[in-house]
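Exercise 7.
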Amino acid sequence: EALAACPRQVTLSIMGEGPHEAALRAKAESLGLGGRVTFQGWGNAKAVADFIRARDVLVLLTRTSRQVREQFGRVIIESQACGVPVIGSECGAIPHVIGAGGWVVPESDPAALAACVKAVLADPGDRQRRAEQGMANVASRYTYQGLADQLAECWLATAGRLRTRTKPESRTKPQPQSP
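Solution. The predicted structure, written as tokens, is:
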């Protein structure tokens, strides 16, 4: 529905397979979007990375349900590591993982998604800035070094709080008073 509200040059490429593919194809056809939506099956890691790198943005629109609340969204950091910013929904951890490397839209809101896509089209410089911020997001938060730095910072902060809670005089044994 969001794609139908976007300019004709906007296309949607879907990689993956599953039980919803037939319904998605039918929906694209019913909206007159058959020529603007492509479907591609799963591939190996290189094929997935190549697919992502060929996109202007990656879209992850998980919707909260009783069974689903996005816990991380690994594809977000995969996309950002490829230099592709992400448009994600407000579901679960998606906004936190995206950070400054993309945009967040309300769940199940095609009008908001279309407006976001139009804004991305209108400002290629913003798209490039967010792509760079996404790569920085991955480097600082999701690499081995980034995670190690965050853990060390957390441990040091915790140690500092523990030190301030335990006063030095409470750790020393009282000295006997002389008569």
